[in-house]
Design a protein that fits this description.
The protein is an alpha/beta fold and 204 residues long. It has 2 domains: 12-147, Bacterial extracellular solute-binding protein, family 7 (D-Maltodextrin-Binding Protein, domain 2, 3-Layer(aba) Sandwich); 154-201, no CATH class. It is 29% helix and 20% strand. It has 7 helices and 9 strands. A 5-stranded mixed sheet has the order 4-3-5-2-6. It has a two-stranded antiparallel sheet with strand order 1-7.
């Protein structure tokens, strides 16, 4: 497994969205929310998201009930943002890199800014959002943003240099596909939940 910090700055920025429709003010009616997540159920991001749902239910003494739908079962990854906007999901985990062109200001953060960890990237993107409040998010209520750590290549066999990427089929999403192509590899779009099977079958 090779790590390339320069790819890490093309971080997958993930945002959780909440529709801006107001909730009942003092009503005792139970608020039911559908929470969509494109990560597979066993992924750490999915496990933490489900834990967050259960925590909300506990802290509201059951007044808020969360139906958690992982693995893209409610909306697929490339429709996760639009799913929140249209009300298919009340809350949706989304990645801007899946929706090229919709977040032009955010895409500036994909540039090589020297991000060395997911923690550092998360601090950076939340400070950026708090300061600039970009209008490209006006159709939703942003709950939080977080950033992935520097990207890595996971291959079936080791390669000693970046030149050995030439001709390899690498699973890459969004703008990351452009980086992979520039390195001489073949970018292949495979849903996150199908990556392991794709490796087994030689699709990637």
């Amino acid at each position: 497994m090779k790590k390339y910090p320069s790819i890490g700055v093309i971080c997958i920025f993930i945002v959780l969205f909440l529709l801006t429709a107001p909730f009942p003010g003092h009503s005792q009616e139970v608020i039911k929310l559908k929470v969509a997540n494109f990560f597979p159920p066993v992924h750490k991001c999915s496990i933490l998201a489900e834990q967050w749902c259960r925590d909300i239910e506990k802290q509201t003494n059951g007044r808020v009930k969360m139906t958690y739908l992982p693995g893209g079962t409610l909306v697929p990854a490339n429709q996760s943002y639009e799913g929140a906007v249209r009300g298919i999901a009340d809350i949706s985990l989304s990645s801007q890199q899946w929706i090229a062109g919709r977040f032009p200001l955010t895409e500036g953060l994909y540039l090589p800014l020297g991000v060395k960890s997911g923690y550092q990237g998360t601090i950076m993107i939340n400070a950026w959002y708090k300061k600039f409040k970009p209008k490209e998010y006006d159709d939703v209520k942003v709950l939080y943003m977080n950033c992935a750590p520097p990207g890595v290549f996971m291959t079936l066999k080791p390669f000693p240099s970046i030149n050995d990427l030439k001709g390899l089929k690498i699973r890459a999403a969004g703008d990351t596909a452009k980086i992979v192509t520039a390195m001489g590899a073949i970018a292949v779009s495979v849903p996150m939940g199908d990556i392991y099977e794709g490796l087994q079958r030689g699709v990637v």
